[in-house]
Amino acid sequence: MGRAQKYVLLGDATYPLQDWILKPYQEDENLTQRQLQFNYRLKRAHSVIENAFLRLKARWQILLKCDDCSLELLPTLVLACCILHNICEAHDNPFNEEWLEGTEPTELPKPCQPAPAAMEDNQAEQVRELMCQYFESCGEG
């Protein structure tokens, strides 16, 4: 993209636009084709992430009932499951699709109202615009 970028998290419209949180353009009739494509690609990336977490929870179902472990242990437990999951994926350990039956995709709690405009970072729009240009240069997909 012509300049180094930091990692970003993907957020939805309720999150404030920050240089570390990418969120879609607000959906309205004034969006350009490029902005619509950006929103589409962001949505696709978000679905990949949701699928990855679904597979992680299906393989390590202890993550579905973490309410019985201490809060101090929880980050270590999640990290251990992520590491073991990545090892299994890297070594083509078969994923049993039946594991998904007990793992319904759940909506994580999110803010109900969009973040106030005052929380938005003015420089973050430059990051989003760079990503928008990058997606446009990649063509369809």
What does this structure look like?
There is one protein chain. This protein has one domain (9-138). The chain is built from 3 helices and 2 strands. The protein has helices spanning 33-59, 74-90, 124-138; strands at 9-10, 21-22. The chain has a two-stranded parallel ribbon. The radius of gyration is 18 Å and the shape is globular.
Question: Which key terms come to mind for this protein?
Answer:
two-stranded parallel ribbon; mainly alpha; globular; single chain; 2 strands; 141 residues; 3 helices; 3% strand
Task: Briefly say what this structure is.
Its cofactor is a divalent metal cation. The protein is mainly alpha-helical. The protein contains three helices and two strands, in the order E-E-H-H-H.
List the topology elements:
Layout: E1 9-10, E2 21-22, H1 33-59, H2 74-90, H3 124-138
Parallel strand pairs: 1-2
Helix pairs in contact: 1-3
Q: Looking at the chains present, what oligomeric state does this protein adopt? A: single chain
Determine the mean pLDDT: 83
Strand percentage lies at: under 5%
Give helix % range: 40-55%
How many structural units, i.e. domains? 1
Which consecutive residue ranges, at least 5 long each, have pLDDT under 50? none
Helix-strand topology string: EEHHH
Helix run count? 3
Strands, total number: 2
First-last Cα distance: 18 Å
